[in-house]
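Below is how a single chain appears once it has passed through the pipeline. First comes the sequence as given, then the structure the pipeline wrote out for it. We keep one example in the README because the format questions we get most often are answered faster by looking than by reading.
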Amino acid sequence: MSIGQITGWAIGIIGFLSLFIEVSKIKINPISALLKWIGSKASAQLIEKIDSNQKETNKRLDGIERKQEELEKKIEELSLQEAIDVADSIKTQIFSFYHELQKPGIRHSEAEFNQIIALNEKYERLVERTKQPNGVYEAEFKYIMQVFHQCQETNDFDLRGKNNGSNGKGKDPA
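Resulting structure:
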């Protein structure tokens, strides 16, 4: 064999082996480049499908977030309306108590006054939360408190805790 033949064979073997062996100093890697190109072509459809699914998922999440915000707003509105309704109910109870105090012969126990005072405290918290006007309510409650203090000073409550029209002492605290 001549040197030309040996050189030809060596170049052929090196060329053939270069298809399977990558030398790090050589920046041209034909096998890696070829496989990368084949991989990108093969996965292009998959990547497109993933992107499409991601967009659809984002749309659904946006819809869910909007619904959640709407529900939170509705819950807050309902909570506020419930507080307003409870405040109105308390106001009705206190007005009823106020009117009973103005009727002769109807007496109330200290526990009933304490219940009305507790309702008033709850009412004031609700009014503060709902920002609803208080109106004439304050004057009625002031009158209830005057009668309560008068009953405390004279110790003249209905001791049986019933609204039976008899105070047991022959006098009406209002």
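The first helix runs from residue 3 to 18.

See the next section for the split statistics.
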